[in-house]
Amino acid sequence: MRAVATGFGAGRIPVAPGTAGTLVALPLWYWSGGWGVRHLLLLCAVLLVSVPAAREEIAATGSPDPQSVVIDEIAGMLLAATGVPWGAGHALLLFLLFRLFDVFKFGPAAWLNDRRGAVYVVADDLAAGVCAGLVYRGIAWLTG
Asked: Which of 4, 24, 112, 124 is most buried, by the most CB atoms less than 10 A from its CB?
């Protein structure tokens, strides 16, 4: 489970592990296409394992929110990409938006980030994913 929590090692990168974890989500998004049954099953699978995996990494490291846990970034990015077809431009914009919301933790993400426990470690990134997805859709709507 610790391998899952760390995105199979991406979270152990000493510089910007959250960004590395978000990058792990991109090939998964590419594989799933961003919509349909395959994407929803992938998202559900990641969500189901994310909290137990994060809990195990928290217990092993003794940190309440270890930087090595990146399964939450993977889940948040996949949530943001839900319904968005894979494409390089879409991926770049959503990646940047997700990192922005994940790093700066606006609104509900900030509230969730202040809580302790594996559920909140994952939930703040899911909130960042929702925000990134909404802003992406707003930009896509405005630009046609």
From this structure: 124
What was the pLDDT predicted at 144?
81
How far lies 1's CA from each of 8, 20, 63, 114, 117, in Å?
10, 18, 16, 24, 16
Count CA atoms within 13 Å of residue 16 on its CB side.
8
Chain segment 83-115, per-residue pLDDT in tens = 999 999 999 999 999 999 999 998 899 999 999
* Cα–Cα distance, 89 to 73 (Å, whole number): 20
Ramachandran class of 62: left when φ > 0, alpha when ψ lies in -120 to 50, beta otherwise: left
Residue 74 to residue 96: CA distance in whole angstroms: 14
Q: What is the pLDDT of residue 60?
A: 96
DSSP assigned state of 65: S
pLDDT of residue 38: 97
Asked whether the predicted pLDDT for residue 49 surpasses 90, the reply is yes
Q: Are 102 and 73 in contact (CB under 8 A)?
A: yes
How many C-beta atoms surround the C-beta of residue 141 within 10 A? 8
Please count the other Cβ atoms lying within 10 Å of the Cβ belonging to residue 122.
24
